Amino acid sequence: MSVILFLIIGGVAGWLAGLIMKGRGFGVLPNMGIGIAGSLIGGFLFSLLGLSSHGLIGSLVTATVGALVLLWVVQKIRSG
């Protein structure tokens, strides 16, 4: 996958996770960071569950799920 496509998927995944978790995105660069970290987390979680994703939509779903998990964990750590 090209680097530019990876960054775009990361940005969209971070934005979607921000919309779901708090009603708005975080900004372009934070969305990319959250989405890229989310893609790594999502890929790890999907492999643990025996799931696989293919193509652009599969990558976006994996990254978004991972970003949601990341934001949920951060929210739990911050709240105590």
TrEMBL record:
Keywords: Cell membrane, Membrane, Transmembrane, Transmembrane helix. The chain crosses the membrane at residues 6-21, 28-49, 55-74. Belongs to the UPF0410 family. Its main location: membrane. It is a multi-pass membrane protein. This is GlsB/YeaQ/YmgE family stress response membrane protein. InterPro entries: Transgly_assoc. It is found in: Cell membrane. GO terms for cellular component: plasma membrane.
